[in-house]
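Slide 14.
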Amino acid sequence: MSRDRPPVCRQAGLMPMSEEKTLFHGSPSQVVNLGAYLLSGIVAVALVAAAILFLPWLAPGLVAPIGYAGWNWLLLRSRVYEVTTERIRVSTGILTRRTDELELYRVEDITLVEPLSLRLFGLGNLELATNDTSNPRLTLPAIKGVKQLREDLRKAVEERREKKHVRVAEFEPGPGAGL
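Slide 15: predicted structure.
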């Protein structure tokens, strides 16, 4: 018997479970809400100015822009991504949580997108094309350290494919295909 297996596994003749490691765990950056925050701030300042100068009954209207900004913050904060060496988990929801998983061997392509508005803050988006029916395209928006995550994810995808003995083939349609 192998000495590198834990005692319980040796006794049962089983291999130990894989060592799943977390590559990334977090939410998108609140930078994506910058427009909502600016709009809320402008409306709030306008309401305060109008309440002070003309119509004092407008002061309770401050609840709307503050609530709007708070709701956007909460929606983004409640979206959590966990990227491990075996899968990607996406948890969403405020009152009802939903967690969806994507096995890494199903990832076909990883695209790094860095718009100027995100690059200014050291952020970027990862866009994944997969052969998963529930998640054919998955985007991880406004992620810090996105370049390193892309490399780590690329390596993990290749390792999972090798471990699962999965090969990805790309077919180009021949002449007359699709007619």
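Speaker note: Residues 1-15 have pLDDT under 50 and may be disordered.
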